[in-house]
Description:
Elements: E1 14-15, H1 20-29, H2 33-36, H3 39-56, E2 58-59, H4 61-72, E3 80-92, E4 97-108, E5 113-120, H5 123-135, E6 139-151, E7 160-170, E8 198-199, E9 208-215, H6 218-237, H7 240-243
Antiparallel strand pairs: 1-2, 3-4, 4-5, 6-7, 7-9, 8-9
Helix pairs in contact: 3-4, 5-6
Amino acid sequence: xxxxxxxxxxxxxxxxxxxxxxxxxxxxxxxxxxxxxxxxxxxxxxxxxxxxxxxxxxxxxxxxxxxxxxxxxxxxxxxxxxxxxxxxxxxxxxxxxxxxxxxxxxxxxxxxxxxxxxxxxxxxxxxxxxxxxxxxxxxxxxxxxxxxxxxxxxxxxxxxxxxxxxxxxxxxxxxxxxxxxxxxxxxxxxxxxxxxxxxxxxxxxxxxxxxxxxxxxxxxxxxxxxxxxxxxxxxxxxxxxxxx
Length: 244
C-alpha cells in the first residue's frame, strides 16, 4: 500500500532537522539539478532553508524555490548587508493614520556595522528611510510588489513566507515614497526580456535596479529586497578594483 492509494500526499517534508541529502533530492525533483549537484550552491540554499525553518517549522516547495532565487540569483558583491531590524508602529483615527519608527543595523563590505533610526508613514517606509540614511545615496523607489505569500495556517508550517520584488533608480531629487505606500505601489511590470538585475528600458534612460527578498516577516523581506537593489546600483557604479 502506498500513501497515494489512500489519498495521502507523499511529498517529502523538509524542516530544520532535514539533512542536506533530503534538500538535494527535493531540489532535483523541482528541476534544480544544477543547484543540487553544486556543493557550494546547495550549501547556501540549505543554510537559508534551515534559518527559515526556525520560524516556519516546515518548508513548502514554493518556499524552497523562493530561497533558491533569494540565495543564488543576486549580485555577488554585498556592499551592505542587513544585520538587524526593529520596527515600532502606532495608529490613530481608527487606523487611518500610522506612524512607524525603524531602527536598522547594516554591515558594510569591510565588516563595519552602522545603525540608524528613522520615522515613516508606515513600517516599510520607515525601514527604507533608515537604510537610506546609512547608505547615503539618492534612491527613488519605482516599483514594489508582494509576489508570493506561501504557508500559513492552511498550509504546511505555522507561518507564511513572503517574497518581495522591487525596483529602484538613482534620483538626485530623493523623491519621497507615496503617502499610501505600499497600497497603490503594489503593481509591478517586467518588459519582455528583462530579468531581475539591471534594466535599462530605452536609450539614455536611467538604469533601473531590481531586488528580491524573502522572509516570514514582510518588513524584513522588504529590507532585504531594497538592499539587494541598492547593492546592484552601487556595483554598477563602482569599478571592481575599487571595491576589492
